[in-house]
């Protein structure tokens, strides 16, 4: 292949442009307006078309292409990014009097007695960023840093789905947008749940998760985190300046940026702003994201200018903080909880206390490393915090209040429910119950099996699962499919119609997609994403159950831990029996392996190595699959081709040593181009 710049046919350029516009539009409809017009599958289809086109004509790739959302090459370090105007912080107000004093200060400074109009915005609890748009294109994303210089996180910011890569309508010549990156509470809880199941320490709060995700050197990791952005102001602007802050926010919205207008209100004077604060405080619990206060800003921008800034804070804005969601109470005892995977976690029983409006009587202690770190004992006075997680956490011990009668929290050696011995693996933070028949594990397994991502048995929530076990109606997952109406009638308040609905829901679940069943089985380390990968690769439970460790580890994205867990699961006699029972009872997910569209690599095993430039690893693997081949993660005697990009290391050496054919990326693309080698 030549290294001359390619000549791209006009029709291809036009098609690319059209795909970019369509994808930008659907992305905006979905992630900013929450009003999708097409299905996820249709979106993926358009994206695949774009990726293929860009693979064939790499010169088409631009920083604003929707393909950049998946994350590009990892960095060694972040470069400094100087802000066009300093990123200021805010002074805090904690009481109504603080707000009234703010209003007095403003009027005094302006030498006026006329009421000041304020804009009241929610203060999102996330991470501050600055986005620079030049001629409507996103050219830079930066953290706040010391306010003058932050870090260049452009690649990561591009992966945030509701950050427009290209502005709409009457955007200005240049604008530096100020915004908060945050994460929705349900996403935060889901990710933490996953970490707990995998024996990892959960994130302390949504802000830490957002901050950690944003500072990944590998943008592909950031792309995997469901980050969101909400804009609240600007720094540098070359273009027409609006008269009020409200108009500015409306402009941002018109340009395609997300602004929390639903929770933003204009107040004619400070008393109205105080009322807004109380209203927002009441709504706080209903919001799907964390806010830690309300920001009150002078609405007129000419007044803002006149008021100016102090050293690091503007005179025209103030943050009215919400009361912390922390409270002091006594840790009375500790109970042990056993999860689906046998993980035993300590939970603190607390003297009931009101934490920011909610009564709390238990809190997570996470694990014994955490207990040691906190140095917490039974009888201690502790600080509990509700930090976005469903379960509040003990964050600190008030050591001054110790009396000397506090007792250590012992590490358990046996399961509190079935008394089986506990085991803790070296790289894990929790001990696990090894009892395969442990009732506590069965309860959690049933809940997981029936859950939405699993077999989605509607109506079969935790309460009914408890009753099924209490009434001895089930002794295994398979027993769910043996339930009869008479059995269900033993439930409290169970009528004919409800029982029919429940049985119908159970029956309907028999044909759920294979990925749902694999997830529902609760194989350790196998979440929805891995389940889908396995379906793509194996297509049926039969094939998956006979996959070897080597087969599995060869799949990109499946590491030793996951592969080991899958092999162990299918090796266990009890699990094989369960699968046979489910099949006999009519659980039959449709086979859905994607048919290869070509056969150019039928039966061949291909390994990708080095930093690929013509396509991403995922796209390469997709192409291999489309041509009937198998992508593997490691080079062995069975490897047919190694595709090596720049910087290829040990895998390339091994391929050469084994005499495996090594291809450049271009040679690989030629190999799979129909007509040239058929
Ligand atoms: S205004 C000059 N408005 O709160 C204006 N900040 O110290 C400075 N924040 O980390 C900020 N929501 O990222 C403003 N509606 C809002 C905000 C907000 C959250 C964050 C901001 C910064 C901190 C202020």
CATH topology group of the largest domain: D-amino Acid Aminotransferase, Chain A, domain 1
State the share of residues found in helices, binned by percent.
25-40%
- Assembly category: single chain
Cα-atom Rg, whole angstroms? 29 Å
Relevant terms:
alpha+beta, five-stranded mixed sheet, five-stranded antiparallel sheet, 24 helices, Helix Hairpins, binds 2-(butylsulfanyl)adenosine, D-amino Acid Aminotransferase, Chain A, domain 1, 678 residues
Structure description:
The two termini are about 20 Å apart. The radius of gyration is 29 Å and the shape is globular. It has 24 helices and 22 strands. Strand 13 and strand 14 (about 360-365) form a beta hairpin. The strands form six sheets. Strands 2-11-10-3-9 form a five-stranded mixed β-sheet. The chain has a five-stranded antiparallel β-sheet with strand order 14-13-12-15-16. A four-stranded antiparallel β-sheet has the order 5-4-7-8. Helix 1 packs antiparallel against helix 2 (about 40-55) and helix 16 crosses helix 17 (about 530-540). It has five domains: about 5-70, Helix Hairpins (Orthogonal Bundle); about 90-320, D-amino Acid Aminotransferase, Chain A, domain 1 (2-Layer Sandwich); about 325-400, Nucleic acid-binding proteins (OB fold (Dihydrolipoamide Acetyltransferase, E2P), Beta Barrel); about 435-595, 5' to 3' exonuclease, C-terminal subdomain (DNA polymerase, domain 1), CATH 1.10.150; about 605-670, BRCT domain (Rossmann fold), CATH 3.40.50.10190. It is about 35% helix and about 20% strand. It is α+β, with helices and mostly antiparallel strands. The mean pLDDT is about 90. It binds 2-(butylsulfanyl)adenosine. The site of 2-(butylsulfanyl)adenosine has 14 residues, from strand 3, strand 8 and strand 11.
């Amino acid at each position: 292949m030549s290294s001359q710049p390619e000549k791209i046919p006009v029709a291809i350029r036009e098609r690319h442009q059209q795909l970019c516009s369509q994808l930008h539009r659907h992305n905006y409809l979905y992630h900013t307006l929450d009003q999708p017009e097409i299905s996820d599958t249709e979106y993926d289809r358009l994206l695949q078309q774009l990726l293929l086109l860009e693979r064939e004509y790499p010169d088409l790739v631009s920083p604003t292409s929707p393909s950049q959302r998946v994350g590009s090459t990892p960095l060694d370090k972040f470069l400094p990014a100087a802000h066009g105007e300093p990123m200021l912080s805010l002074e805090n107000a904690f009481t109504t009097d603080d707000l009234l004093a703010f209003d007095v200060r403003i009027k005094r400074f302006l030498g006026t007695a006329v009421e000041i109009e304020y804009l009241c915005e929610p203060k999102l609890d996330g991470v501050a960023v600055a986005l620079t748009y030049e001629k409507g294109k996103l050219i830079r994303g930066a953290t706040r840093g010391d306010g003058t210089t932050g870090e260049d996180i452009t690649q990561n910011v591009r992966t945030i789905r509701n950050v427009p890569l290209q502005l709409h309508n009457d955007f200005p010549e240049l604008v530096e947008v100020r915004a908060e990156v945050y994460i929705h509470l349900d996403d935060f809880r889901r990710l933490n749940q996953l970490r707990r199941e995998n024996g990892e320490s959960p994130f302390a709060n949504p802000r830490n998760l957002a901050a950690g995700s944003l500072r990944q050197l590998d943008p592909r990791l950031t792309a995997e985190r469901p980050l969101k952005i909400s804009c609240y102001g600007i720094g540098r602007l070359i273009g027409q300046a609006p008269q009020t802050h409200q108009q500015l926010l409306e402009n941002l919205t018109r340009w395609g940026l997300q602004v929390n207008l639903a929770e933003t209100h204009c107040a004619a004077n400070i008393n109205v702003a105080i009322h807004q604060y109380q209203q927002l405080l009441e709504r706080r619990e209903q919001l799907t994201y964390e806010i830690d206060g309300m920001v009150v800003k002078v609405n007129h921008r000419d007044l803002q200018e006149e008021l100016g800034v102090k050293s690091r804070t503007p005179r025209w804005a103030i943050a009215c903080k919400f009361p912390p969601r922390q409270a002091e109470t006594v840790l009375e005892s500790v109970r042990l909880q056993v999860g689906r995977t046998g993980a035993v976690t300590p939970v603190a029983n607390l003297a009931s206390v009101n934490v920011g409006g909610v009564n709390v009587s238990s809190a997570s202690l996470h694990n014994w490393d955490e207990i040691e770190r906190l140095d917490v004992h039974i009888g201690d006075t502790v600080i509990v915090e509700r930090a976005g997680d469903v379960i509040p956490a003990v964050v600190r011990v008030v050591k001054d209040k110790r009396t000397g009668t506090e007792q250590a929290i012992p590490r358990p050696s046996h399961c509190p429910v079935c008394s089986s011995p506990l085991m803790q693996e070296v790289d894990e933070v929790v001990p696990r119950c090894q009892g395969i028949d442990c009732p506590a594990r069965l309860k959690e397994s049933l809940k997981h099996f029936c859950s939405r991502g699993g077999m989605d048995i509607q109506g079969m929530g935790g309460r009914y699962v408890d009753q099924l076990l209490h009434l001895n109606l089930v002794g295994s997952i398979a027993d769910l499919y043996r339930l009869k109406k008479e059995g269900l009638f033993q439930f409290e308040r169970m009528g004919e119609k409800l029982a029919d609905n429940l049985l119908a829901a159970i029956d309907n679940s028999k044909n759920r997609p294979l990925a749902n069943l694999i997830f529902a089985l609760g194989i350790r380390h196998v979440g929805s994403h891995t389940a889908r990968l396995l379906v793509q690769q194996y297509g049926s439970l039969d094939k998956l159950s006979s996959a070897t460790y080597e087969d599995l580890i060869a799949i990109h994205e499946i590491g030793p831990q996951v592969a080991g867990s899958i092999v162990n699961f299918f090796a266990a006699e009890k699990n094989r029996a369960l699968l046979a029972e489910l099949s006999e009872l009519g659980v039959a997910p449709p086979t859905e392996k994607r048919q290869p569209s070509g056969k150019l690599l039928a039966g061949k095993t291909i390994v990708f190595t080095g930093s690929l430039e013509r396509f991403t690893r995922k796209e390469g693997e997709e192409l291999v699959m489309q041509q009937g081949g198998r992508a593997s993660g490691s080079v062995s005697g069975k490897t047919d081709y190694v595709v090596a990009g720049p910087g290829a290391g040990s895998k390339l050496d091994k391929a050469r040593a084994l005499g495996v054919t090594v291809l450049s990326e271009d040679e690989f693309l030629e190999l799979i181009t129909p007509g040239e080698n058929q």
